[in-house]
Amino acid sequence: MPQQNPEAPQEAGNTVSAPVTAATSTVLTSPLDHILIFGHGWFQRLVLFCSTLAFFTTVLQAAAINSLARPADHWCRPPAEYAHVPAEIWRNTSVPLEADGVTRHKCLRYEPPLPSGEEPGVEERSTIPCDAGWDFEVDAASIIKEWNIVCERDWIMTALIAAYMLGGVIAAPFSGIAADRIGRRPVLCIWTFLLMFAGIGVAFAKTLIAFAALRALLSAAAAGVVVTSTVVLFEVTDTQHRALFCSVAEAGGSLLASVYQAVVLGMVYDWKAVQIVCMVPTCCLILGVYLMEESPCWLLAVLKMRRAENVLSWAARVNNADPNDFKHRLSALRVELKRQQEQQQDPGSSDIFLGPQDVRVTELVRNQSLRHRSLLIFGCWFVAFAIYYKLLTGHVMRSNHGARLALLLLKLPGTIVNVIIIKYAGRRRTLSLSMITMAPVAGALAIGHTVRAPGYFLAALVVVWMLVFDLFAVTLFILTAELYPTVVRGAGLAFSYTCGRVGAFIAPFLNEIHSSDMKGLMYAVAAALLLFFGVMALALPETTELQPANTMHDFAAEKWQLQSPLRVARKGSKRKRAKGGQSTSREQPNRTGSEEQDAR
């Protein structure tokens, strides 16, 4: 049986036989675009709204710990027998000074607390840790005061941040797998409900354990919502708008969260009120998810034809698509899907192309092409997000108001520039460029900590790194979704996001490194890893040259078109060896045959 030319995306019986190369100016038509026959309009904007809110919630809740745990001035509480001593006298006579000779110590007191002689300045007294707890400034209303997270108990803050990140690590893989098995919308509804439950519950937590557990559940729900909503947005947006919409969702959500935190949360000081205020915009997500429909791409990928047609018809009405044109395109889509089903059932290709019922998350490991790209993408997620959350929860972003203001003011123009770069430079080059740019900045941080550079210099480097990270994050979300076919896209993005959350999980422990030399070493290692993965990212396919596949059939038949440097070189050498009379179509069986081995 002759091999069918996989170079040509087909649409309703029309076949384009011209080969597609890296230098072509033709915009390729995605298998997803064949399905999106309902036009572009309010249907996609509704999904964009939900996805933007999902990113907004994820970024805001992660950064909210800085507002929930605002530093509070504190000192040792008097033991019971000295409770009658006025607070001002106690602080002036019983609390020693810091090394600067001005600030009162926060974690030590004198023993005995009060001088016994007539000349207190001459008497020698020892210092001991606070043994009766701590007193706080009157207007302090953070979790620091609520549960005494100070002095020898400050490790609790590290544990709280780690527990929050761990929730996302555990939940994200299950979200992706479930979204690929039972659908995007059911998973999104479940996680949205848990998000509201946990978010509101945090504000009413009475114990530290309850607070930590609800924050972990909140993180899990936020991870599930952002992964699933991103997949839906990706799948319902056509090639022309996909990069823009995904960029707006990620960058816009992050920008709005930063503005909301600085403007709104900056005016709220009670930690319970802070949490409630964080949840107010999230309530809009309930309405958005209720109005959303299932991804038609997923429905067709798993052969749920009748429901897919219902969703396509509803989307066409929402977008005010021309009814006659929609009916014609729907009829053509039925013919194309029937042809693909017959091809998959052909005994000659059954061992090459997997049906939807045969696809499992293990395809990420079993399929050679998916396995290689997953390893690279996972590494990029882990390294960059570990550094990002280390800086986000570190000393500079928690205490330097100038750095936070500069980052906030530069985010909007940075977002506009990011969208332009992604559109014209391509995904692979943008990803590589951003990581290679972050590497020397991390190297400068390493040198700065080693030589004890001024704080303003280190703060400036942190702001620069965070701005470049915005470009990296937007590109990474888009590229990751494009690398996987619809039937495993949820799992692929979810496991990638999990690797990023694993990096975020270790970030609070990195913040426990206080030695300047060790900080310098840490940033040096980070710079080396960023440079390594930035260079290796060039081996990933340039997905602007081949649009996303819907099934493993599409993926296996067209993945040879993915233009990584190695494939371009291999293709070039083949063309040089080819005789002048050879046609491109005669080379295709060899390409297809090599890819059949990968698919097996």
Automatic annotation (TrEMBL):
Bias class Basic residues marks the residues at: 568-579
Q: Which is one Gene Ontology cellular component term of this protein?
A: membrane
Q: Looking at the keywords, is Transmembrane helix present?
A: yes
Residue ranges constituting the Major facilitator superfamily (MFS) profile domain according to the UniProt record: 47-544
Q: Where is this region: Disordered?
A: 566-600
**Membrane-spanning segments:** 46-65, 155-175, 187-211, 217-236, 243-267, 273-292, 374-391, 403-421, 433-451, 457-479, 491-509, 521-540
- Keyword Transmembrane on this protein? yes
Q: What is the membrane topology listed in the Swiss-Prot or TrEMBL record?
A: Multi-pass membrane protein
Q: Where in the cell is it found?
A: Membrane
Q: Which UniProt keywords apply?
A: Membrane, Transmembrane, Transmembrane helix
GO molecular function terms noted in the UniProt entry:
transmembrane transporter activity
**Pfam families for this protein:** Sugar_tr
> Residue spans with biased composition (Polar residues)?
582-592
Name of the protein in question: Major facilitator superfamily (MFS) profile domain-containing protein
Q: Which organism is it from?
A: Amblyomma americanum (Lone star tick)
